[in-house]
Design brief:
382 residues; alpha/beta; CbiD-like
């Protein structure tokens, strides 16, 4: 159970929770692993200092408000204390929802506060994440939150002089990490402690976009000058089988083609292959670089123009323009054996992507069918 604290309007905690924890779409927000780790560490520091069990703590979130976290387990002695928080991700389908986040705070005899990762917190093995290689995957904002809150909890006490070691752990972290892209990013042995605001927004496109950009960062930092941007899991699988590049070079960009291309340019990547199927490619070919279905619909009229340029018959053009889906268009074109349509569509994707990159990327486009066969190819040199 997590509640937000009273605000300046004097709302009760329960009322404040309802107000703050339901977003504009009526969905309940949650709290990041970083916020939960901060709460657990703060509670452990208090338990060690006061030599008593702590049942809740309040932390200040980077988003600018306070939140109170229930402490689900607390044990202590004169040398150390350990506390746990159960992560509540709200209505977000987060793999860490319900995970136990623990913090152990112990005396070191050396002035200062040391932060480290324990069981279930991943270890960084590749550059490009903004974290030290060999260190725990605790991102900068959570790191700062934890250190600031623990420091404040023991300020002016003997513990501040004697020095503390804070160890963050996630008992099921290694198992949970198998459901993430951590291994591909070079984070091994567990999950990452994440969060820039402390709050999880349900179905957060911002978090999705950030993960795409981070994947590009890691690939570039590890020397990948050719990155493969795929529109989904199947197209990534097909591209892997065809191209044979290191796994690190493949980034599942989803709907964020524009962001991925810009990130490639920013990180000095010189070559990008876009791999996808006809639905997403039909949008990219028109220059729609965020391809979510709700934002940009497949345009049969545009596909009809391409078909006309490839010599489609009047009857085929009528069928294409009246098609229900992009896949329907594909089936019509294949039945008519107008296969250069697919190369032309792919060339449009390559040209549009090249232009979007400011001419700084060599672009290849690979259009797959739904069984992994290449339907079309396009290319545009930088």
């Amino acid at each position: 159970m997590v509640t937000d604290q009273k605000d300046g309007n004097g709302a009760a905690a329960g009322e404040e929770e309802t107000f703050h924890r339901v977003n504009r779409r009526g969905m309940r927000t949650g709290y990041t692993t970083g916020a939960c780790a901060t709460a657990a560490a703060t509670a452990a520091a208090q338990a060690l200092l006061e030599q008593r069990a702590v049942d809740s703590v309040t932390v200040h979130l980077p988003a600018g408000r306070d939140a109170t976290f229930a402490i689900t387990a607390c044990r202590f002695d004169r040398h150390s204390a350990q506390c746990s928080v159960i992560k509540d991700a709200g209505d977000d389908p987060d793999v860490t929802h319900g995970a136990e986040i623990t913090a152990r705070v112990g005396l070191t005899g050396i002035s200062g506060i040391e932060l480290c990762g324990g069981v279930g917190v991943g270890v960084v093995t590749r550059p490009g994440l903004g974290l030290a290689v060999g260190g725990p995957a605790i991102n900068p904002v959570p790191r700062r939150m934890i250190l600031e809150h623990v420091s404040a909890a023991v300020a002016g006490s003997e513990l501040a002089v004697r020095g503390l070691r804070v160890e963050i752990a996630v008992p099921r972290g290694e198992e949970l990490a198998k459901k993430t892209l951590n291994a591909r990013l070079g984070i091994l042995g567990g999950i990452s402690i994440l969060g820039t605001t402390g709050i999880v927004q349900p179905w957060s496109t911002a978090a999705w976009r950030a993960s795409v950009e981070q994947a590009v960062d890691v690939a570039a930092a590890n020397g990948q000058q050719h990155i493969v941007l795929t529109t989904g899991g199947r197209s990534e699988k097909f591209a892997m089988a065809l191209l044979g590049l290191p796994e690190l070079a493949y980034v599942e960009m989803g709907i964020f083609t524009g962001h991925a291309l810009r990130r490639c340019v920013r990180r000095g990547v010189t070559e990008a292959t876009l791999a996808g199927m006809i639905g997403k490619f039909s949008k990219l070919a028109q220059g729609h670089f965020q391809t979510h279905v709700a934002g940009n619909q497949v345009d049969p009229a545009f596909l009809g123009e391409i078909a006309a340029g490839c010599g489609a018959s009047p009857a085929l053009l009528d069928q294409v323009r009246g098609a229900n889906t992009a896949r329907h268009v594909q089936e019509l074109i294949q039945a008519a054996h107008l296969n250069r349509f697919f190369d032309t569509l792919s060339q449009h994707v390559a040209q549009r992507s090249h232009d979007y990159s400011g001419g700084k990327l060599t672009i290849h486009a690979l259009l797959f069918d739904f069984d992994g066969h290449v339907l079309g190819r396009g290319a545009r040199a930088a």
